[in-house]
Amino acid sequence: MIRKLGTLMVLMATIAIGACTDKQDLPTGLNVDVTKARVRIANATTTPFDVALNGSTFLGGGNIGVGNSACALLDPANPSALSIFSVGTTTPLPGLTLTLPALTANKDYQVIIYPVGTTPTAATFEHGGYTPAAGAMGIRVFNGAGATGNVGAVDTHFIPTGGTVSTTTKVAAGSNIAVGAMSPYFDITTPNNLVRFTRTGVTTAVSYNSITTTGATSTSGAFTGVNGVTIIPGANSTIILASPASGTTHRAYMIGGC
């Protein structure tokens, strides 16, 4: 699978959610180094950046655009070797404080860079470790839509193709996800369902393209989502809800491990 964590998605874009055990970001031979932690850095901001190790941008780590990601191998004893720079420089991304938690060798992590207001912020999560039921795929959702004018907590809905959002489409484990929070994993088993996001507490069927960042006080409406979910049994993936890169349409991306 390619390095990008998802094509920029507006209303009817399609993405297949798979295992995403990306290897092409890593130099040949290093992706089996069990002494290192595997870290995927995802850009859910509105600005490209470089990913560097020990002060130098590595192959595949340059100019990580909005909606893209890169993988890095980190020595668990030296997580501070990872840096996020403004593109083409060795200047830290303005406003970002990057402090990783303790890492464990031979495990996968996701570092999601997302906005809180106008400030880029980092959130780190271990990837995987969840075993879906037989025939199911494990999904979790991160609310990275924290830019100025954000609409707050969201609910996740899985609906059949051609269906609409309602109280019965809401996923309990994917409900009331605050900005900067990750839901627990939950299983999905029905292929080609649509993923939609609404503000928490929406109780009536709504049009999934009706929310914009200018409607933060509205009590109804939904964000853009992910179309055509493909089930990969036994796999785990993370869906990121992100603020608009431009205009008013929110975005949804998918990432896996390295």
CATH topology of the largest domain: Immunoglobulin-like
- What would CATH call the architecture of the largest domain? Sandwich
- Distance linking N and C termini: 10 Å
**Order of secondary-structure elements:** EEEEEEEEEEEEEE
- Please give the order of strands in the largest beta sheet: 4-1-6-7
Give short descriptive properties of this protein.
258 residues, mainly beta, Immunoglobulin-like, 4-stranded mixed beta sheet, 14 strands, 0% helix, 31% strand, globular
Q: Can you put this structure into words, describing what you see?
A:
- This protein has 258 residues and is mostly beta strands.
- It folds into 2 domains: 30-127, Sandwich (Immunoglobulin-like), CATH 2.60.40; 137-255, Immunoglobulin-like (Sandwich), CATH 2.60.40.
- 0% of the residues lie in helices and 31% in strands.
- It contains no helices and 14 strands.
- It has strands spanning 37-43, 50-53, 56-57, 69-74, 82-85, 108-116, 119-127, 137-144, 154-159, 186-188, 194-199, 222-226, 236-242, 251-255.
- The strands form 4 sheets. The protein has a 4-stranded mixed sheet, with no helix packed on it. Strands 10-8-13-14 form a 4-stranded mixed sheet, with no helix packed on it.
- Strand 13 (236-242) and strand 14 (251-255) form a beta hairpin.
- The chain is globular.
- The model is unreliable at 1-30 and 204-224 (pLDDT under 50).
